[in-house]
Amino acid sequence: MSQPKLLLLGPPGAGKGTQSANLVERFGIEHVTTGDALRSNKGMDISHLDTEYDTPGAYMDAGELVPDEVVNEIVRTALEDADGFVLDGYPRNLDQAEYLADITDLDVVVSLSVPTDELVRRLTGRRVCSECGTNYHVEFDQPETEGVCDECGGELVQRDDDTEETVRERLRVFEENTAPVIEFYDEEGELVTVDGEGAPGEVWKRLESAVEARL
Ligand code: AMP
Protein backbone atom coordinates (compact mmCIF):
# COMPACT_ATOMS: atom_id res chain seq x y z
CA MET A 1 0.00 0.00 0.00
CA SER A 2 1.24 3.48 -0.72
CA GLN A 3 1.83 5.82 2.17
CA PRO A 4 -1.17 7.62 3.75
CA LYS A 5 -2.41 11.00 2.57
CA LEU A 6 -3.56 12.96 5.61
CA LEU A 7 -5.10 16.39 6.09
CA LEU A 8 -4.88 18.17 9.43
CA LEU A 9 -7.34 21.04 9.85
CA GLY A 10 -7.75 23.43 12.75
CA PRO A 11 -7.36 27.06 13.75
CA PRO A 12 -3.98 28.79 14.13
CA GLY A 13 -2.48 27.54 17.40
CA ALA A 14 -4.35 24.22 17.45
CA GLY A 15 -1.03 22.33 17.36
CA LYS A 16 -1.07 21.32 13.70
CA GLY A 17 2.69 21.82 13.35
CA THR A 18 3.55 19.78 16.43
CA GLN A 19 1.13 16.97 15.60
CA SER A 20 2.19 16.92 11.93
CA ALA A 21 5.75 16.22 13.10
CA ASN A 22 4.42 13.21 15.04
CA LEU A 23 2.52 11.97 11.98
CA VAL A 24 5.64 12.34 9.82
CA GLU A 25 7.63 10.20 12.23
CA ARG A 26 4.89 7.60 12.76
CA PHE A 27 4.02 7.05 9.08
CA GLY A 28 7.23 8.07 7.25
CA ILE A 29 5.40 10.71 5.22
CA GLU A 30 6.19 14.27 4.19
CA HIS A 31 5.04 17.39 6.00
CA VAL A 32 3.54 19.82 3.50
CA THR A 33 2.82 23.14 5.19
CA THR A 34 1.91 26.28 3.30
CA GLY A 35 2.78 28.53 6.28
CA ASP A 36 6.45 27.43 6.29
CA ALA A 37 6.65 27.48 2.48
CA LEU A 38 5.32 31.04 2.44
CA ARG A 39 7.61 32.15 5.27
CA SER A 40 10.56 31.01 3.13
CA ASN A 41 9.17 33.04 0.22
CA LYS A 42 7.91 36.13 2.04
CA GLY A 43 9.59 38.52 -0.38
CA MET A 44 8.53 36.78 -3.62
CA ASP A 45 7.30 39.27 -6.23
CA ILE A 46 3.63 38.51 -6.97
CA SER A 47 2.80 41.95 -8.37
CA HIS A 48 1.95 40.37 -11.78
CA LEU A 49 -1.15 38.81 -10.15
CA ASP A 50 -2.59 42.27 -9.68
CA THR A 51 -3.58 41.60 -6.06
CA GLU A 52 -3.80 43.89 -3.04
CA TYR A 53 -0.16 43.45 -1.92
CA ASP A 54 2.98 42.68 -3.93
CA THR A 55 4.47 39.97 -1.70
CA PRO A 56 3.19 36.99 0.37
CA GLY A 57 4.87 38.54 3.45
CA ALA A 58 2.63 41.61 3.31
CA TYR A 59 -0.49 39.40 3.55
CA MET A 60 1.03 37.34 6.33
CA ASP A 61 2.00 40.34 8.44
CA ALA A 62 -1.57 41.60 8.14
CA GLY A 63 -2.95 38.18 9.16
CA GLU A 64 -4.76 37.86 5.82
CA LEU A 65 -4.78 34.94 3.40
CA VAL A 66 -2.20 34.90 0.61
CA PRO A 67 -3.93 34.68 -2.82
CA ASP A 68 -5.07 31.21 -3.89
CA GLU A 69 -2.99 31.21 -7.12
CA VAL A 70 0.21 31.42 -5.09
CA VAL A 71 -0.73 28.85 -2.48
CA ASN A 72 -2.35 26.32 -4.85
CA GLU A 73 0.82 26.20 -6.93
CA ILE A 74 3.00 25.57 -3.85
CA VAL A 75 0.75 22.68 -2.81
CA ARG A 76 0.48 21.16 -6.28
CA THR A 77 4.26 21.00 -6.64
CA ALA A 78 4.79 19.62 -3.13
CA LEU A 79 2.15 16.88 -3.47
CA GLU A 80 3.48 15.80 -6.86
CA ASP A 81 6.81 14.90 -5.26
CA ALA A 82 5.46 13.24 -2.09
CA ASP A 83 4.82 9.54 -1.42
CA GLY A 84 2.35 10.09 1.42
CA PHE A 85 1.97 13.39 3.22
CA VAL A 86 0.34 15.33 5.99
CA LEU A 87 -1.02 18.60 4.73
CA ASP A 88 -1.11 21.40 7.31
CA GLY A 89 -2.38 24.97 6.87
CA TYR A 90 -4.19 24.20 3.59
CA PRO A 91 -6.95 24.34 2.38
CA ARG A 92 -7.98 27.55 4.12
CA ASN A 93 -11.07 28.36 2.05
CA LEU A 94 -13.59 26.48 -0.08
CA ASP A 95 -11.89 27.31 -3.39
CA GLN A 96 -8.66 25.79 -2.11
CA ALA A 97 -10.60 22.72 -0.88
CA GLU A 98 -12.08 22.24 -4.34
CA TYR A 99 -8.67 22.66 -5.98
CA LEU A 100 -7.26 20.04 -3.61
CA ALA A 101 -10.06 17.59 -4.42
CA ASP A 102 -9.07 17.88 -8.10
CA ILE A 103 -5.40 17.08 -7.58
CA THR A 104 -5.45 14.32 -4.93
CA ASP A 105 -7.51 11.80 -2.89
CA LEU A 106 -7.17 12.05 0.87
CA ASP A 107 -7.23 9.01 3.18
CA VAL A 108 -8.05 10.78 6.46
CA VAL A 109 -9.19 14.33 7.29
CA VAL A 110 -8.75 15.37 10.92
CA SER A 111 -9.98 18.53 12.61
CA LEU A 112 -8.11 19.52 15.79
CA SER A 113 -10.51 21.38 18.03
CA VAL A 114 -9.34 23.91 20.68
CA PRO A 115 -11.29 26.74 22.43
CA THR A 116 -10.47 30.30 21.31
CA ASP A 117 -9.09 31.60 24.65
CA GLU A 118 -6.63 28.74 24.70
CA LEU A 119 -5.56 29.50 21.11
CA VAL A 120 -4.82 33.16 21.95
CA ARG A 121 -2.77 32.09 24.97
CA ARG A 122 -0.80 29.55 22.95
CA LEU A 123 -0.07 31.86 20.01
CA THR A 124 0.84 35.09 21.78
CA GLY A 125 3.16 33.13 24.12
CA ARG A 126 4.85 31.19 21.33
CA ARG A 127 8.54 31.84 20.65
CA VAL A 128 10.44 30.36 17.72
CA CYS A 129 14.16 29.75 17.22
CA SER A 130 15.37 32.11 14.51
CA GLU A 131 18.00 29.54 13.47
CA CYS A 132 16.36 26.08 13.51
CA GLY A 133 12.63 26.83 13.88
CA THR A 134 12.06 24.91 17.16
CA ASN A 135 8.97 26.20 19.00
CA TYR A 136 8.84 27.23 22.68
CA HIS A 137 6.24 28.89 24.90
CA VAL A 138 6.82 31.56 27.55
CA GLU A 139 4.61 29.65 30.04
CA PHE A 140 4.21 26.05 28.90
CA ASP A 141 7.51 25.18 27.24
CA GLN A 142 10.38 27.37 28.42
CA PRO A 143 13.96 26.89 27.21
CA GLU A 144 16.68 26.29 29.80
CA THR A 145 18.02 29.84 29.28
CA GLU A 146 15.48 32.55 28.52
CA GLY A 147 15.59 33.66 24.88
CA VAL A 148 18.05 30.94 23.79
CA CYS A 149 17.25 27.74 21.87
CA ASP A 150 18.07 24.49 23.73
CA GLU A 151 18.71 22.71 20.42
CA CYS A 152 21.11 25.05 18.64
CA GLY A 153 21.77 28.15 20.81
CA GLY A 154 19.89 30.37 18.33
CA GLU A 155 17.94 33.44 19.41
CA LEU A 156 14.24 32.93 20.26
CA VAL A 157 11.91 35.44 18.64
CA GLN A 158 8.19 36.07 18.36
CA ARG A 159 6.78 35.42 14.89
CA ASP A 160 5.66 38.71 13.32
CA ASP A 161 2.09 37.38 13.14
CA ASP A 162 1.94 36.09 16.75
CA THR A 163 1.28 39.54 18.25
CA GLU A 164 -2.12 39.82 19.96
CA GLU A 165 -3.62 42.07 17.28
CA THR A 166 -2.61 39.83 14.38
CA VAL A 167 -3.56 36.67 16.28
CA ARG A 168 -7.12 38.00 16.76
CA GLU A 169 -7.27 38.82 13.04
CA ARG A 170 -5.97 35.36 12.08
CA LEU A 171 -8.65 33.74 14.25
CA ARG A 172 -11.33 35.94 12.68
CA VAL A 173 -10.09 35.01 9.20
CA PHE A 174 -10.15 31.35 10.23
CA GLU A 175 -13.78 31.58 11.38
CA GLU A 176 -14.79 33.34 8.19
CA ASN A 177 -12.87 31.27 5.60
CA THR A 178 -11.71 27.99 7.10
CA ALA A 179 -14.59 26.97 9.36
CA PRO A 180 -16.66 26.36 6.16
CA VAL A 181 -13.88 24.04 4.94
CA ILE A 182 -14.31 21.91 8.05
CA GLU A 183 -18.07 21.82 7.40
CA PHE A 184 -17.37 20.82 3.78
CA TYR A 185 -15.44 17.70 4.84
CA ASP A 186 -17.96 17.00 7.58
CA GLU A 187 -20.81 16.98 5.08
CA GLU A 188 -18.82 14.61 2.85
CA GLY A 189 -18.66 12.28 5.88
CA GLU A 190 -14.86 12.27 5.76
CA LEU A 191 -14.10 14.24 8.91
CA VAL A 192 -12.86 13.01 12.26
CA THR A 193 -12.70 15.58 15.07
CA VAL A 194 -9.97 15.20 17.69
CA ASP A 195 -9.91 17.14 20.98
CA GLY A 196 -6.77 19.31 20.75
CA GLU A 197 -6.80 20.58 24.34
CA GLY A 198 -4.15 19.40 26.79
CA ALA A 199 -0.47 18.46 26.61
CA PRO A 200 0.96 17.62 23.16
CA GLY A 201 1.56 13.99 24.21
CA GLU A 202 -2.07 13.48 25.24
CA VAL A 203 -3.35 15.03 22.03
CA TRP A 204 -0.99 12.79 20.05
CA LYS A 205 -2.39 9.62 21.66
CA ARG A 206 -5.91 10.65 20.64
CA LEU A 207 -4.81 11.65 17.14
CA GLU A 208 -2.76 8.51 16.50
CA SER A 209 -5.62 6.18 17.41
CA ALA A 210 -8.12 8.23 15.38
CA VAL A 211 -5.93 8.05 12.26
CA GLU A 212 -5.03 4.36 12.71
CA ALA A 213 -8.70 3.45 13.08
CA ARG A 214 -9.41 4.96 9.65
CA LEU A 215 -6.49 3.66 7.57
P1 AMP B 1 0.38 29.46 9.41
O1 AMP B 1 1.81 29.28 9.75
O2 AMP B 1 -0.26 28.22 8.83
O3 AMP B 1 -0.44 30.01 10.57
O4 AMP B 1 0.30 30.54 8.23
C1 AMP B 1 0.79 31.85 8.41
C2 AMP B 1 0.21 32.78 7.36
O5 AMP B 1 0.56 32.31 6.05
C3 AMP B 1 -1.31 32.88 7.35
O6 AMP B 1 -1.79 33.83 8.28
C4 AMP B 1 -1.55 33.34 5.89
O7 AMP B 1 -1.22 34.70 5.72
C5 AMP B 1 -0.51 32.53 5.12
N1 AMP B 1 -1.04 31.21 4.69
C6 AMP B 1 -0.65 29.97 5.10
N2 AMP B 1 -1.35 29.00 4.49
C7 AMP B 1 -2.22 29.62 3.66
C8 AMP B 1 -3.23 29.18 2.75
N3 AMP B 1 -3.53 27.87 2.60
N4 AMP B 1 -3.91 30.12 2.04
C9 AMP B 1 -3.65 31.42 2.18
N5 AMP B 1 -2.72 31.93 3.03
C10 AMP B 1 -2.00 31.05 3.76
* Named CATH architecture of the domain at 5-29 and 83-115 and 172-214: 3-Layer(aba) Sandwich
Q: Point out poorly predicted stretches.
A: none
* CA gyration radius, whole angstroms: 17 Å
Silhouette: globular
Tally of DSSP helical segments: 8
Which strand order spans the largest sheet, edge to edge or round the barrel?
A: 2-3-1-4-8
Helical percent range?
Answer: 40-55%
CATH topology of the domain at 5-29 and 83-115 and 172-214: Rossmann fold
CATH class of the domain at 5-29 and 83-115 and 172-214: Alpha Beta
H/E element order: EHEHHHEHEHEEEHEH
Overall pLDDT, averaged?
Answer: 95
Number of strands: 8
* Secondary-structure-derived class: alpha/beta
Distance N terminus to C terminus?
Answer: 11 Å
**Major β-sheet profile:** 5 strands, parallel
Q: How much strand content do the residues show?
A: 15-25%
Q: State the oligomer.
A: single chain
The CATH H-level superfamily of the domain at 5-29 and 83-115 and 172-214 is: P-loop containing nucleotide triphosphate hydrolases
Give the cofactors and ligands.
adenosine monophosphate
